[in-house]
Design a protein that fits this description.
Helix content is 67%, strand content 0%. It is built from five helices and no strands.
Length: 67
């Protein structure tokens, strides 16, 4: 489902872009800063997102997401 409906979000380079993309696609209704702040404060989500972004930036190409 993420690959189809939220493909734009999966191309994000950081948590802020990810949150903004999900907001623009109607995934949540909270203010963007509130949503991204929650993501950043979540150890598991923040760590996973940081690792994903780092690996994408090193490879300079999108990595496939597991569903």
């Amino acid at each position: 489902m993420m690959n189809r409906k939220y493909a734009k979000a999966l191309k994000a380079r950081n948590i802020d872009e990810y949150g903004a993309a999900l907001k623009s696609l109607g995934y949540y209704e909270a203010p963007v800063l509130q949503y991204t702040s929650g993501l950043k404060s979540s150890t598991s989500v923040g760590s996973a997102a940081a690792a994903y972004a780092t690996s994408r930036n090193k490879a300079n190409k999108p990595m496939p997401m597991q569903t």
